[in-house]
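Re: weekly structure request thread

Next one in the queue (145 aa):
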Amino acid sequence: MSRRPPYLPADLPAPTLDPLGRGFWDACRARRLCFQRCAACGTFQHPWTPVCFACRARDWRWEEVPGTGTVFSFTWAHHAATPLLAPYVPYNVSVVEIDGAPGVRLVSNVIDVAEGELAIGLGVRVVFEPVGDLVYPRFRRREAA
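Done, posted below.
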């Protein structure tokens, strides 16, 4: 079985990893989508922070969500921001509203869609893409039920 190349180049600089976000990246490595949730008031939040956005509590946990969502916004990049991206244009950067985590929107990519197929409101599901030392959550179109 041949492995598909990553959606974006494997040698693109990785995000800066901090100890607070370790739960997110560890969950992705295990092919689970998890977000920070306040143990005091139940608010989900992303990006992760040491303090709850809603109640200012400092007690939180990582909670798994279903891995589905809806495209909230997107753009297609037609000009490479770096020479590494030149062979990949056009590519999309999408904001996905995550099911099961009210208020959480994740910036990612919807893979395997053409420009005319990506739309606000499109249902998507997470797929995990290993790139270097990290596993990234990306999305694909959700099949109609």
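Residues 19-141 form one domain. The chain is about 5% helix and 35% strand.
Next request, please.
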